[in-house]
Design a protein that fits this description.
about 350 residues, alpha/beta, three-stranded parallel β-sheet, 15 helices, iron-sulfur, metal ion binding, 4 iron, 4 sulfur cluster binding, iron, transferase activity
Amino acid sequence: MKDLVRKLHKERRLEACEYRSLLLCEDRETIESLHEAARETAVERFGKNIYIRGLIEITNICRNDCLYCGIRKSNGNISRYMLSDEEILECCRYGYGLGFRTFVLQGGELPESADSKTVTLCRAIHGEFPDCAITLSIGERFPDSYRRFREAGATRYLLRHETHNPEHYSRLHPEGMTIGNRLHCLDILKEYGYQTGTGIMVGSPFQSADNIVEDIIYIEKFRPEMIGLGPFIPHKDTVFADYWKTTTSILPEKSHKEEGLDLTLKLISVFRLMLPDSLIPATTALATLVPDGHEKGILAGANVIMPNLSPPRVRGNYSLYDNKASSGAEAAEGLGNLKVQLERIGYNIVTDRGDFRTT
């Protein structure tokens, strides 16, 4: 199995059956060699620098009814909100003072009529903070909207495809949503010159090892600048609330929580070796799953963390999954705590934009 790690490190790709073997591998020495190779690759490219992005959760209103998501349209148990442009700009001002030079605007998927508001917002942020990058994560839009966002100052776009397999995708999403349209949006984003991010939900309901291999091969071909990998965590107000209690894992000897951690860390390492210059976050979901999720992600090859800049009063309502971390080192006001955590494992925060680049 260690030969597969060496092959991936050298050739930056494996065959489908080899990816599968690596995913299912339980040998601790092999897994540690995978993480070590990825960690060394990240340090070669970026030093021991971790880029921070200021996450602003602009709305929890969503027109979609994805079966796994806590802010799905049909969930009547959360208080809906939408931040005003001025509230968002205040978040940016606060973040800028802390050193953030990238703002990530994330929200539920709104109707097309909201796109003009997004254009105005991007223009305002770019006008006040011209040295900052603007990242959008607001779902599937029409090509013309992506073009207008780009012209208004947005430079990056995050749109996780979640799963490449059409049948699996249909079991997680309502009728009318298709993986074909999601992939088309990603192609358009690349065409318009965005630094484009995609990724998957690891350990999602009905996911198989072969599904994940399909995702790896898609990402290998698509070559995104950013790769987001979050472990699935159930939400109490969805049809998958009891999923962890009623089903077995891909890795049958592990609990769903252990599996989510194991597979997410493996995939961070695989993608670091495959695409050495990519920007890979240690996600909030990873930090929610285990207290030292950030550190584990970085030691597996991640190089980005996104502390929460949203107003504290709304953070609890942006509830994609249960018990989402949004305070302490996961929050912008806890940047000092995060700095201490990273220094403990030999890394440091950098406050520049951290644009994708090849070295």
